[in-house]
Structure formats: C-alpha cells, structure tokens
Specification:
Layout (H helix, E strand, L loop, with lengths): L21 E2 L5 E3 L11 E2 L15 H4 L5 E2 L4 E2 L5 H16 L12 H13 L1 H8 L4 H14 L2 H10 L12 H18 L13 H18 L6 E6 L11 E5 L4 E6 L1 H8 L9 E3 L2 H8 L6
Parallel strand pairs: 3-4, 6-8
Antiparallel strand pairs: 1-2, 2-5, 6-7, 8-9
Helix pairs in contact: 2-6, 2-7, 3-4, 3-5, 3-6, 4-5, 8-9
C-alpha cells in the first residue's frame, strides 16, 4: 500500500523458516541463520554417521570420503533475498526501539506498524481494508485487536517468522515482488523517524537495479496524482555521451526532475518526501506543486 502502511537481490535457495542476517566484519558478506537447501562447502561442524552407523550405508564413492568440518559458511549478500534480510533487520530494530517509538507513517508508532505487517500477511479479511476504502474500519479494528492479543515482543517474533503456510505471501516467488519494497520502506520508516533520524544506507547494486526496474514498471501509478511532469534520473548513471538513465513517470507542461539513487527515489515515490535524499530540478512553482502532492495513496 503506497500510503506507507502497506508496503532483491537474487532469490536464495533456502529452507523455509527463521532468517537472520548478520554482517561479517570487513568482508562484505552476511550470515544467515540456517543452511541453504543446496549445500555450501565446507559443511558446518556437525556429527556425520560413519559407514554402517545407525544403519546408514553410504555409496561406495562416499564411504571413504573425509567430510570437511569448519565454522558456519558465510553466504554472500546476493544469495539472500533483500526482502528477507530487510524483514530480519526491521524486526531487530523494532525489538531495540520498543512499541512506542515514532515512525514516518502518520499517526502510527512501532506497535501499529508491527500489527500492520502481521495483518497484511496473515489476515486476508482484515488486510482487504488496506486497499478497499469501505473496509478500512475493519482493517483498523483488526490492528487494534492484534495489539491487544499479543505483547509487542511476541508480535515482532511472529512478523520475523514470516507469513503463515497458507498465506499468499508464502507462495514461492511472491516474496520478492510483494515484500522487497514493503519491508525496505517500513525499515526506513523506523530508521529515519524520531529525534535522531538515520541517513541512507549503501545497498547492493543488484538491489538498486531491482528498484530501478520497479520504478520503470510502477512509477506512472505512484506519481499519477501529480499535476506536473515528473522525470526520475538515476544518480551516477551518466554514460560516455553524458546522458543519464531516466524514467518519464508523468508528462506535463512543466517538468520536475528527481535525481537520486533508485532506493531514495523509491522512498520519495512512496511519500517519504521529507527524508528521501534526492535533488529536485525544475521551476520553483513546479517544485512547489510536486511537494504539495499526495503520494501516500
């Protein structure tokens, strides 16, 4: 949902379950909390039955093989979906700041945000009020009920574990398309709110490229209410001839060009106009019209 209440790198071959990303010092790699389906060698230290032990019989080619044991394997960023890593880091941040911290979602604290994330993925009836305005009161009622049902740490843990088995969000392939933007936006809603807001993060090139493609696909819809022309310019993309990569989101008699990284342009497109680190280029009157536009619908 583009109003801030609903809201990758390569898709990982991972077992379903709890995922936590930890940054390894200095080497640009990340750790995940479980092993991938496709083994990554060397295998983490564990007991392997010897040939014949517990009834286990290895093929001849493997019977004499020596299994290498080492510390858990660090998986590179590209092997972990950005949506899942953002989910894990957002939940860690929610645990840190507690239920009453501010967010960039108007009228919401972090407890409201966590309840929204759970309803969106797990309660299809309540979540229908996110997009269907006549059902918005049902959605707000479900949010209030969830906040009463579970203590905040328990609710955050439920969000961390991901959607229920029969949720549409549990369908393979849905996570990247539906949750990459959702969890990135809401992660920034907490990071950049309050008296000591944080600044932008350096994201992997694959993530920025994914967001640029998303802006190409949905930019017109996100800026549809703007009454001036809007061009998105990718920062640092100028080719040898000096022409940068651009997306014309909206046509108009006067045009404003938004210059920034795809992730910061994504924040602006979802109404985080006061915190998105971008440059606006255009006539002052056109910029004023853009800044007064409602991008949260």
């Amino acid at each position: 949902m583009d109003d801030g209440r609903d809201q990758s790198g390569s898709i990982a071959l991972e077992q379903r379950g709890y995922v936590r990303v930890k940054h390894a010092a200095g080497d640009g790699r990340c750790w995940v909390g479980h092993a991938p389906i496709v083994p990554t060698w060397p295998i983490p230290d564990r007991h392997f039955p010897t040939n014949g032990e517990f009834g286990v019989v290895y093929p001849r080619a493997c019977a004499s093989a020596t299994v290498q044991r080492s510390q858990p394997v660090a998986l590179r960023w590209s092997l972990v979906t950005f949506a899942r890593s953002e989910r894990a880091e957002l939940c860690d941040l929610l645990d840190k700041v507690g239920p009453h911290a501010p967010t960039l979602c108007e009228g919401w604290d972090t407890h409201d945000l966590a309840a929204h994330l759970w309803v969106r993925e797990t309660d299809p009836i309540g979540a229908s009020g996110i997009v269907a305005k006549p059902l918005s009161s049902l959605y707000e009622r479900r949010i209030a009920e969830i906040k009463q049902r579970w203590e905040f740490p328990d609710l955050v843990d439920r969000v961390r574990r991901g959607p229920a088995r029969f949720s549409i969000f549990a369908i393979p392939g849905v996570d990247e398309g539906a949750n990459t933007t959702e969890f990135f936006i809401h992660h920034e809603d907490v990071r950049r709110a309050g008296d000591s807001p944080q600044t932008s993060r350096h994201l992997d090139n694959d993530v920025e490229e994914w967001m640029w493609r998303r802006l190409k696909l949905l930019g017109r819809a996100w800026f549809r209410r703007v009454q001036v022309g809007v061009v998105l310019e990718r920062l640092g993309s100028a080719a040898a001839d000096g022409a940068p990569e651009t997306i014309r989101a909206v046509s108009g008699a006067s045009t404003v060009t938004l210059v920034g990284t795809p992730s910061e342009l994504m924040l602006y497109a979802h109404g985080r106009t006061s915190v998105a680190e971008i440059k606006l280029v255009g006539e002052p009157d056109a910029i004023d019209i853009l800044n007064s536009s409602d991008l949260r619908t």
